[in-house]
Amino acid sequence: MRRGNLACSSTRESTAAGSTVERATAEVFAALAGGETVAVCCERTTESVLAAVGVTYLAHAEPHRVRLVATDEAQVRIGEKIVALGDGDDDSVVALAKRVFTGFEKRCGTICARRVVLACASDESGMPEIVHRYLRLGFSEGKRLYEDVAAPEALAFAKLVQRVSSECEHTRQFVRFARLPDGTFVSVFEPNENTLPLVGTHFARRMREDRFVVVDPGHLVAIFHEPGDTTCAVVGLDEDTAATLAARVDETDERERLVQALWQKFYRAMELPGRGAASRGYDLCASWMPKRFWHGLPELGGRP
Amino acid sequence: MDKLTKLGILAEAARFDAACTSSGVTRGPREGMVGDACASGLCHSFSADGRCITLLKVLMSNACSYDCAYCVNRRGVSCPRATFEPRELAELTVDFYKRNYIEGLFLSSAVLGNPDNTTERMIACLEALRGEFRFNGYVHAKVIPGSSPELVDRLGRLADRLSVNLELSSRASLASLCPDKNARSVMAPMAQIATTRHAEEQALLDSPAGKKALARRRREKGSHVSEGMQVTSVGARYTLGRPTSAVPNALRKFVPAGQSTQIIVGATPEDDNHILQLSKSLYDHYGLKRIFFSAYMPMVEDSRLPDRETPVPLRREHRLYQADWLMRYYAFTPDELATPSRPWLDLDVDPKLAWALAHMDAFPVEVMDASLETLLRVPGIGPVGARRILAARRTRRLCVDDLQGLGIAFKRARYFVTCGGKRDLSAPLDPELIRQKVVSDAAGSKYNATRRHAEGQLSLF
Ligand code: SF4
Ligand code: SF4
């Protein structure tokens, strides 16, 4: 076996019989044996994507006969079988994902592994397959992966990482909290990528002694923080809970509205004459602060 | 006066200060306290004119007893005056911080009676903020020229960054426009801050914590991790020629994020060469972290100042920032950017391109074997791009298409590089032609077209 491969020989001990992973692996194996190509269909989560990559290795798939595709964009191609992995109710998905991750981290280093987590948060179409190709490149190149920045797989992957990193920055910048009468801080934020799970620690550091929650109704995810905790709990939501949580930002009292009014006043006072869009010729403000966030910014009259 | 009105007055009065960063120190969260600080800073909003907002920037008071000609707060002007209660401002800071509006406080003030009186009031505010309100986030405080050294020292132990604003770039200009200040009152606190920081650094180097941190830093430097593509590719981390502080800022107690200053551009006759020379010597002598340039905005009528109708020299300010950046991060010297015989920066092209056009004999540069220093001199290649080239060319032969993927502005770089011996044949070699092409490309771009339209013919001040 090539050193670059996952430790496939140990398949048996780590995948319980009848588990999600074992079933998927068997399906992929059978389809390939029957002459078909395979699309492994996964969720847009780090666990699901990494486990799907693991499945392609476990089934000994030749790289050109297998691809990954996200559940929300799976389309049947002629001669191709779709194998759904899903999130799986059992632990086998998470266990395999962990194995792939640790294997990759060992082989290619922590920095590359951290970038995989970022890339998996991307909403970009084709994300799972881009990550898949990058992981394969990494398993074959090892530590050289870090420097091989011009490889086509690495370039496509770097684009995902770049988008997610910059959206994480937007999240850290433009989340706005409102304080409810009971002292909880609430925010609704709708990023383009699934950034909340990645910025939980950041906010936990800032607001160590406070109870807060940030809701992302788009990705149906929230982060919760209890006073004193060093991290946030990441929770998946159904649509009703997301809506109920999001509606709480309107439960503010008079003091909170005063703070918002003060912030708005401050924001307006910062503007300098002679340097606005008219004198500059282009709108610097909008280019730094994308319009899609404006409705959530109290300084621009939006709700927090 | 209600809080809202007061904040309006004291924020509006503070907006002329260009310093906006919340960067320079990393400080983790502490139990029972509010906030942390992160070396790279974080902007939370952008004003309508596009400047970033990262700190609650206000004056403690705008009731000034001084009479600087260019200032809207000077004693002779009739305008509404207000003064914050120290505790009131501290509370507002924490309120804003917890809503993720800001990273901290930028506290400045007009001279309330005399400098010491003013500084004491600022100290009272910061003591409430750090003590009663347990604030562990970022604080930038302005030093009022003329404050006693004891007070400057106390202020420096409460703030992360201090700044003493030079405002005018020569003694003569200062004497003519700011009759109550003198060069000594500005330079003395700057020197005091530099000396105290230096002394603390020496003491820390000898301490066990300092030694441990130093050893860690050496290990990190040695590993190959310092090159290639980082998760967060902050260009500043990969740069040349910047002596970094020997000890981590987090260990410091006095002004951990260092000091900065501001120079007003366009109110007085000093040229760009003068300003860049001055900047260089400030960086060298006082270890300044940043110099902010503020395009002069004619707000008051005064015979010593440019006419009220003079447009704000925005483009000159922009070019000075670019030149300053080249000095700090690309090891350019002031005389390479604006020479004593041609003392003004070119307003049509950026200073790096201007330098390259004047030194065509240094080009083309071969991407496959040029040194980091040489790559950094190529217009269109920045610190991150240069590092990526170094990393990538170890594993494969690069071609022109690869360069684009690595984040190099090839449209700009193509006049100045060869890649594996090949150069872009459609790119002219003659500096005058390159210049025309770059200027017309820029002019053709949508934003410059609108910009020119808005600026009219005049504002190339
Ligand atoms: S725009 Fe630049 S200088 Fe201003 S806060 Fe952001 S990073 Fe700092
Ligand atoms: S000291 Fe001079 S610049 Fe400062 S507020 Fe007073 S008049 Fe204005």
UniProtKB/TrEMBL annotation, chain B:
GO molecular function: catalytic activity; iron-sulfur cluster binding; metal ion binding
Keyword Iron attached: yes
Entry keywords, A to Z: Iron, Iron-sulfur, Metal-binding, S-adenosyl-L-methionine
SUPFAM superfamilies in the record: Radical SAM enzymes, RuvA domain 2-like
InterPro entries xref list: Aldolase_TIM, DNA_rSAM_put, Endo/Exo/Phosphatase_dom_1, rSAM, rSAM_sf, RuvA_2-like
UniProt protein name: Radical SAM protein
Species annotation: Tractidigestivibacter scatoligenes
